[in-house]
Write a structure and sequence with these properties.
- The chain has 194 residues and is α+β, with helices and mostly antiparallel strands.
- It has one domain: tt1808, chain A, CATH 3.90.1570.
- It is built from five helices and 13 strands.
- The strands form four sheets. The protein has a six-stranded mixed β-sheet, with helices on both faces. A three-stranded antiparallel β-sheet has the order 1-3-2, with no helix packed on it. The protein has a two-stranded antiparallel sheet with strand order 5-6.
- The two termini are 24 Å apart.
- 28% of the residues are buried.
């Protein structure tokens, strides 16, 4: 079993189109695959059961809030989004305003949506190095539409908050994390995450 991502560099003449990359991911559904802006593929290991449970609790809390709030929809870690740089990424959990989602065609919604969520969450697995995840969060914050990002580091009990045009904020062992004002009233209870 893989313990850290495998990175594959592709020669320029073997770069996949968006359609080919989508089909490649569909044919290899047992793999978690992302592509960076340079066309390099990262094949990520499945998380352990404990991390999977913690990620589920994040998605569950976000989903309950989203159903009550009614202004947007949630996505899980298997949802791919195409960044303006050409990269395709899959945050561990995310939320998008309905009007932005509904502006996409049905075909765009069924593939890797060419739009990025308003809110993204990444959860650090025990095998993850922190810096690549921070780099990924910085990449997210350059995308139009993203308003808020959270990187949860269970290993050190820290939550890094990202907002466009602002410096990273680090919360040390918080009991809750607020989504205000981007997600009005959303509070992530960290007791199920730590």
């Amino acid at each position: 079993m893989l313990s850290s991502p495998i990175f594959l560099r592709m020669p320029p003449d073997l770069q996949m189109t968006d359609e080919q990359f989508f089909e490649f991911c569909q044919v290899n559904q047992d793999l978690r695959i992302e592509r960076n802006q340079f066309g390099e593929l990262s094949i990520m290991p499945f998380t352990g059961s404990e991390t999977g449970n913690r990620n589920f609790n994040i998605a569950l809390q976000l989903g309950i809030w989203a159903n009550q709030n009614g202004t947007g929809i949630c996505f899980d870690s298997s949802s791919g989004f195409k960044l303006s740089t050409g990269a395709e990424r899959s945050p561990d959990a995310s939320w998008m305003k309905l009007e932005r989602w509904n502006a996409l065609t049905l075909e765009q919604q069924q593939r890797f949506a060419p739009i990025y969520p308003d809110f993204v969450v990444e959860l650090r697995s025990p095998s993850d190095n922190l810096q690549p995840l921070k780099d990924k969060m910085e990449e997210y914050m350059k995308e139009p539409g993203i308003q808020l990002g959270c990187l949860i580091d269970r290993k050190h009990r820290k939550v890094y908050i990202y907002r466009p045009g602002m410096l990273e904020e680090c919360l040390d062992n918080p009991t809750t994390v607020s989504g205000d004002p981007v997600l009005p009233g959303f509070v992530l209870n960290m007791s199920k995450i730590w």
